[in-house]
Every structure is written in C-alpha cells, then in structure tokens.
Prior knowledge:
InterPro entries: Band-7_stomatin-like, Band_7, Band_7/SPFH_dom_sf, Stomatin_HflK_fam. This is Erythrocyte band 7 integral membrane-like. Belongs to the band 7/mec-2 family. Helices cover 56% and strands 23% of the residues. The protein has helices at residues 2-20, 22-36, 111-116, 121-138, 142-147, 149-164, 183-225, 227-244, 255-258; strands at residues 37-40, 44-50, 53-54, 62-65, 71-77, 81-91, 97-108, 169-180. The strands form three sheets. The chain has a three-stranded antiparallel beta sheet with strand order 3-2-5. Strands 6-7-8 form a three-stranded antiparallel beta sheet. A two-stranded antiparallel ribbon has the order 1-4. Helix 4 (121-138) packs antiparallel against helix 6 (149-164) and helix 7 packs across helix 8 (227-244). The longest helix has 43 residues, at 183-225.
Amino acid sequence: xxxxxxxxxxxxxxxxxxxxxxxxxxxxxxxxxxxxxxxxxxxxxxxxxxxxxxxxxxxxxxxxxxxxxxxxxxxxxxxxxxxxxxxxxxxxxxxxxxxxxxxxxxxxxxxxxxxxxxxxxxxxxxxxxxxxxxxxxxxxxxxxxxxxxxxxxxxxxxxxxxxxxxxxxxxxxxxxxxxxxxxxxxxxxxxxxxxxxxxxxxxxxxxxxxxxxxxxxxxxxxxxxxxxxxxxxxxxxxxxxxxxxxxxxxxxxxxxxxx
Length: 259
C-alpha cells in the first residue's frame, strides 16, 4: 500500500512539473537536439565512446545521435594522406653515405583500430616508414640502390603494410624521390660512364672495320673470278671522274694492257 502511494505521489509530482514547465521544455527541446544530433561528411567516420567504453561499430557518414553527458566521439578522416619521410642519411653495405628522400601515401580503413591501437596514426606511420627505409637500403650496396630501386620500393611497401595493418591503416604507395650521392662518388661515376662510352665506341668502330674488310675481301674474290666485272668497275670509275671534274682530260687505257 505504501509503495502504491509512493508511486502515485511520484506521478503526481511529475505531471505537476510537466504542467508548470511545459513551455520551457518546448523551447529547450530543439536546442537539446543540437547537442544530440551530429553530422559528419562522406569521407569521415565517428568512433563513439559511452562512459569511456568504445563501441566497435562506427557511425557515419551523415547524421547520428549521441547522449549528452554520456557519449563523446572522435572523427576520423578516411581519405588518402601523403607525407614526406624526413631526409635520411644512410650508410650502405659498401660503406657509402647516401641521402634519401621518400614519400608515403596511406589511408585509414578501420577507424576503430586507428583510434584505439595507436595515439597518432600518421606520426606512427611516418616513424615506421623512416625506420624501414633505413633498414632496407642500409643492407644494400650503392649499385643495388641505383639499379634495383623498384624492387626495393616493393619490399618497403610490403613491410609497411605488415606493420600498419594492426593500426587499421593501409599503405597505398611508396616513392623514393631522390638519392643524393657524395660529390666524390658522383665524379667517379661520371668518369666511369665516360670510359664505358669510349670503350663501347671503340668496339663498334672495330666491328665496323672488320665487317668492311670482310666485304672488300669478298669483292676482290668476285673480281678475280669474273674479269669482266673489273672492266665494268674501271669504266664506272672513269665515269665518276669525268662527272666530278669536267675539265679533266682522260685517256682510257685498254684493260688488256694491265694484264
């Protein structure tokens, strides 16, 4: 009986409160929606925390509701982000110091992991990229870095994806923008390239002379086998001389005299 009276009194108090404050509630209700209703863009997602506990299911894009004083949320941008890896001075396997500039493109595919598994996902990816870049290039010689750049980029890309997967991110692309060598190494490589070009030119010249001598030998053998061809060649030579110098007087000698 006492419980019934208590419930009745509570209902009466509630009804009286609503009657007295109905106007205030009608005015404040639209304002309260501003705190409950949130909106995020197409490329954003919202990770909801209720009393400190994170919900696995993220919200967005569009409108979503939160409970005032109980819920908080963190927005996560899922677009591709590009950042420059800080310039790295790397000692190669053959003891040559090179300076490498690189750029990394990555995006967040799981906002829940990106918020809960790492404090700053972009900073963590940047530091991991610099570390893997030093480890991969430091285990190679200078010649391998210059000649096998695409192969090394694929290795760096694969290791980055393995390391960042648990953070809810994926590395889409890695590019090595520049590899700067010491001045002494650049001069030595220029001298080596020039010497290689000269050696290649000498080889091509020697092959051309060899081919020409072979063709002359074949022509001489052909003349020996066909004496008439010698006479035709003789007449052709006379025709060329007469064409080049019209004032020259030529007295042809019968080819039989040469025999």
